[in-house]
Amino acid sequence: PCRASCDDGYKMSCNHAALLFVDPADSQTVHVPIRKHVGKQGYHGATDNSSAALQTDPTDINALCSRAAARMCLGDLQGALDDSNAALCIDPKDVTALGVRADVRGSLGDLHGALDDSTAALIINPEDSGSLCVRANAKVGLGDLQGALDDSSAALFVDPKDIRALCVQANARGGLGDLQGALDYSTAALRIDHTDIRALCVRAKAKSGLGDLEGALDDSNAALHINSKYVRALSVRSDAKVGLGDLQGALADSNEALLIDPKDIRALCVRAKAKVGLGDLQGALDDSSAALHINPKDIRALGVRAGVKESLGDLTGALDDSIAALEINPNDSRALCARAKARAELGDIHGALDDSTAAIRINPKAARALVVRAHAKLSLKDFQGAFYDTSEALQIDPQDAHALGLRADSKLGLGDLQGALDDSMAALCIDPENIRALGVRADINGSLQDSSDKLGGNVRPLRIDPKNIHAAAAIGLGELQGAGTNGAKTSGKRGSAMFLPCPPPFSPRASGNLCTRADARVTHGDLQGALDDSSTALRANPKDIRALRIRAKAKIGLGDFQGAYDDSNAALLIEPGNIFDIGARADAKLGLGDLQGALEDSITALQIDSIDTSALVIRADVRTALGDLQGALEDSTAALRINPSDSRSLYVRAKAKLGLGDLQGAVDDSTAALRINPKDIHALCVRGEAKVRLGLLQGALDDSMEALRIDRNDVQALCVRADVRGSLGDMEGALDDCTAALQTKPKHSRALNIRARVKKGLGDWQGALDDSTAALQIDPKDLIALCFRAKAKASLKDFTGALEDCTAALRVDPRDTNALCLRADIRGSLGDLQGVLDDSTAALRNDRADILALSVRGDAKLGLGDLQGAIDDTVAALKINPRDIHALSVRAGAKLGLGDLQGAVDDSTAALQDNKKNDHAIKVLCYRAQAKIGLGDLQGALDDSTAALNINPGDVNALGLRADAKGSLGNLQGALDDSSLALRINPNDSISWGVRASAKCGLGDLQGALDDSTAALRIDRKDTRALFVRAKAKAGFGDFTGALNDVSALLRISPRDASALCFRAEIRGSLGDLQGWLEDSTSALRIDALSVHALGIRGDAKLNLKDFQGAIDDSTTALRIDPKNVHALSVRANANVCLGNLQGALDDSNAALHEDTKGVCVVKALSARAQAKLSLGDLQAAIDDSTSALKLRPDDARALGIRADAKGSLGDLQGAVDDSTAALQINPESFMWTVRASAKCCRGDMQGALDDSTSALQMDSEDTRAFCVRAKAKGGLGDLQGAIDDCTSALSIEPKEIEALSVRAQAKLGLGDLQGALDDSSAAISLNPKLPAPYLIRATAESGLGNFQGTVENCQAVLELEPGNEHAVSGLTNATRALRDIKPAEWSVGRSGK
Fold it and tell me: N or C, which end of the chain is more exposed by having fewer CB within 10 Å?
C-alpha cells in the first residue's frame, strides 16, 4: 500500500477520542495491481513500464492508472492526479481511475473531492473494496466516523483480509471510543502483515488509551523500526513515554516528529505535555498554542494549554480553554478536570466540585479529577470526603505527592495527627518543595508557633495563598531556606490548618527580630521580603537606624535609588559621619546618575577609613562611569587586596578591564565574581559583553540568559543579549531586547547604539538614524554613535551629513581608523574614489595591519579599475584574517571584473560562511549571484539575490539580479515584479529596464517591452539586452525591418552573439530572405556548433528552401544533442511529410507533442501531423489536429489550409472554401489557392475553380494538383482540349499522378478518343486499383468500343469498391442487355474493338 507524506492532508474536527485515532498518514492506498513491485525501486519499475506502454498507446487507461498509483507510492501526488485525470478523460466511468484519483485527492487534503470520486466509483461498482476504503478514510477526515465504520465494514465483507479496511475500521472504532474494538481490528491487520506500519500505530494508540503503555511503546518502536521517520509513530511513542515518565525521551521523539512535519498537532501536544513535566511551562504554552493555530478546535491541545495556563497563574485563560474544549465534547473528562481546577483557583468551589464529579462519572479512575475534587472538598471543610478521594487517587498512583499532601491536610482536619505527619513526610520524600506538605508538617511540629512567639504571639488561623512565598516564610526563620522562601517552584497547596501571624503589638524585641529576618532575607536575595520587614520595623520605630540601613540596602538592590538615598540621609541625620551610611548614599547617587556627588561621598568615606573596601569599590564604579578606567582599575585592585573575595570589586575591575580592552582579564574577574555569587547580574553582563567582543557568542548568550532569568528587566543583560542576537542574525529578537531595555531606561546610550545597529540590519535606516541621534544627545562625543549615524545618513543618501559626522568623530580622535575608513566609504558613495584612497591610506599609516583600511583601499582600487591592486590589498588583509568578509567581498568583485567567475563564487562563498547578514553581505551575495548567472547556475543566482533582499528589500542591484534569474528560469511575472520595484527605487537603472522589457516580452506585453527597452537604450545605447528585447518586440508587432535594424546594431557591438544571429536569421526568414535566414543560422553554428536552437533554425530555413534532406540532417543532429527538442522534432516532421515519409512525420510530431502542448513549435508539429494524417486518409484526425493548432494560433495559414483540404475530402465544401479563403487572407500560397479551387470545383463553381487554380500555378508552375483541378474546371466549362493539356503538363512533372490520368481519360472520352481514354484509365487503375472513377471511365470507353464484357467487368469492379454506385449499376444493366442481344460468337469481335 502507498503511504504518501500527507500528514496534514486529512483535517478533522471531531471529539477527543476521534482526535486520538484519526490519522491522515493511516489513510493512503493503491487501487491497481502493482503490488508485485516491492519497495521504492519496484514503484520506479512500475512507472517506467507504464510510461513505456503509454508511448505505444497514449490512451491505455490501465497504464495510466498503474503509473498514477506508482507515482502516488513515490510521493508524486501531482503526477498521480494528472494521470488519473487523463484516464478519466478517456473513460469518465473507469472505476480504477476514479479510485486512484479519490485516493490522491485525499492525500492532497481535498477530502470532499475524495468523497465524491469514491462515491462515483461505488455507484458503478458497489463492491469495489478499494473505493470503499478511500471513502471511509475521507469520512474519517470529515468527522463522519459512523459512515467510515459502515464503509470499512462493507469493504471487509468483500475482502475480510483487506488490511487497509481493517486499519480504517480500527481507526473509526477508536474515534468512537471503542478502544477494545480498535485493538482487535488492528491486531487482525497485523496477523495478515505484521509489518504494516499503520496497523502498528493504530494498535499503539489503542493500547495507550487502554493504559497498556508498555505495549504502546513496543508497537510504536516496531513501526519506527520499519520507517524511522514516520511522524505518527514518533508521536505515539512520545505519548507513551510521557505516560511512562520518560519525559526527556518524549521530548526527543516529539522534536524529531516536528522536524519532519512542523505542523503535526499530536506531536506539538505531546511535546507540550513533556515540557510541562520538565517544568518548561512557557515552552508548553507555545507548543499548545501552535497546535491550536493549526486547528483551533483541537481538544487535546485545548486541554494541555488549559493546564499550562493554570500552572502559570492565568486562571481565566485556563477556564476559557477548558470551556472551549467542552463545547467541542461535553464529556471530555480532561477538559472537565481542567475547568474544575481553574474554578477552584478562582474561588468557585462548588463549580469545581460539580466539574470534578462529572469527570469522575465519565472516568472513575481519573486520578487528576479525584485530586481536584479532594481540593474542593477541603475548601468546603469536607475532610472525610477529601480523605476518600485522595485515598482513591493514591490507589491509582501511590507516588502522587499532590494527593499525599491533600490527604495529610484532610487527616489533620480529622485529628489524625500521626497519619497527617506520615503522609506529609511521604509527600516531601517525593517532592521536598511541596508547600502543602511543608505546612502540615510545620503545623504538627509547632515550628510556626515558635516563630510566631518570636514575633510577639497572637496567631490566628488563616488559609493563605499557596503561591505567596512571603506567607510561606511565616513558617519561621528556621524554615527560611527549607520552605522555599527564595522563590522556589511549588508543587503543592497550603493546608487549611496553616496559620499566619496577626500584626503583633510592636516591641523592641519584635523590631529586632524583624531586622534580623530582613537581614537574612537580603543575604538570601529576598529583597522584597527584606524591604517589607524593615518597613514594618520602621513603622514601629521610624528612627531604627539598623532598619534604615537594611531598607536602603534592599532598595539599592531593587533599583529604588531615590528611596535608598532618602533612607541613608535619614540614617546620617541620626548618626552623622557613619561610613556605612556615606557609602550607601554614594551608591544611591551613582544609581541616580549624580556621579560627582557619588565621587565626593566615596572620597569622604575613604578619608574616614582609607581601606574601606565598600568605599573603594564605589569610587572605582564612579570612576568607570566618568571614563577614568585606569583609576577604576587601581581602586578595585586595592579593594581586592584587602578582600580578595569581594564580588563587587571583582565585577568593577572586570568592567574597567573591559573598557581598557583587556577582554580576557574582564572574563577572568567576572568569572571569579560569579564563583562567589552565581546570581550577580552585573558580573554576568560584563562577562557576556567581553565574550561578545571575543567572538564567544554562545557563551555570551548563556550569560545574558542567566542574568535575565534572575531579572528579566535588567537593561545591561538585555543589551548583551541584543548584541549577541544581532551578531547571530536574529534581528527581530535583538530589536525586542533593545526596546525592552529602553522601556526600562529610555536614555541608555548603549541600548540606543545597539538598536540603531539592529535597525540597520533590518533595513530601517531612518530608525537607526533616530536612535544614534538620541545616543548623541546623551553624549555628543560618543564615537560609536557618531560613526553609526554617519552610516545611517549615508544609507539615506545624506552624504554631506554623513561626512560631517565622520569629521566630528575624527575631531574627537584623529587617529580613529574606523572613522577614517567610514569617511573613505562615504566618499566612495559620492564617487570621490581618490578621497577613498587617501583616507584608507591615512588609516594604514596609523596601522599598517588594519584589515578594514586594507579592504576599503582595495574597494577604492576596484572602483578605479585597478583590479590587480584591489586583489593585492585584499590578499594582504586576508593574510591577517583569512575570513574577513569585506576583504573577501572586494576580492570577489575584482575576480568578477577579471572574468574569473569561479574564483568570484569561491571568495563570496567564503565571505558568507561566517556571517550572512553583515554590512557587506548584500554586495557579496550580488557578486556571487552575478557570477552564477555567468556560469549558468540560475537557481543559485536566484537564491543569492533573494538572500540579499532579505537583508535589504530595497537593494536595486539585488532586485535586478533576481529579476534576471527569474526571467531566465521562466518566472516572468516574478521578473516583472522585481524589476518594477527596482525601477521605482532607481528609475535610471538601465539593467532593470532591460530585464523588465524582457519579462514583458515573454508575457506578451509587446508594447510595454518596446517602451522599456527604448528607455534602457536612452540611458545606455549599447545595452545589448535592450537591443535584443526591442528587436523581439518589433518583430512581434510585424515591424521586421525595425527588428532587423536593432539586432544588426547588437551584432555590431557583439558580433559573436549566437542568440542574436539566430534571431536575425528568423527575422530574415519572416522578411522572405531565405538565403539570409540560412546564412545567419550557419554563422551561429560556426560560433557554437552544438547549438540546438541554431540547428533547428537552419533546418527550418532549409525546409523553406525545399532542401528537405538538409532540414532532416540538421534537425537529426539537434535531436542527438537534445532528443526532446520540440523545434527540431517539428522541423523533421514537416520535412518527412514533404519527402513522403508519413510514418516518420507522425512519429516526430507525436514525440514533439508529448514534450510540449502549448509552445511556439507545437503549431508546426500539429500541422505536420495533420498533413501526414490527411495523406494517410485519416481525415477527421487531420481536422482535429489542425483545429488544435488553430486554437493555439488562429492565424496559422498552413493549419487553415490543411483543415480546408480535409473538410473538402469529407464533403464539407463550404467549410473548405471558408478555411482556404481565411488562409489566403493571411498568406496567399499556391497550396491555399489549390485547396479552394478544388472545393469550388466540387461545388460546381468551375469558373472560380479555374481562376483559383490559375492563381496557384502562377505562384508555383509545378503544382501538379493545381493542374489537375484546372483541368477539371476546364472540362466542366467544355474546354476538353485545355483539360487534356493541363493533365499532360501535370504528368510531365509527375508521370504517376493518378488524378491527372483520370481527368485526361475523362476529357479524351468527351472528345471521342476512346482508346486514349482506355489507356489513361488503365494506367490510373494500375497505379491504384482501389479508386472507382478510373473503372467507370474505362467501362464507358469499353462500351464505346463495343467490348460489353469489359464494361460488365469494370462496372462490377466499381460496385465492389462502392456498392450501389448508380453509374456502375446503369452501365452494368445496359452492358448486360447488350450482351444478350449479341451472339456469343461475336463477343470476340467486340473485344477486338470493332
Answer: C
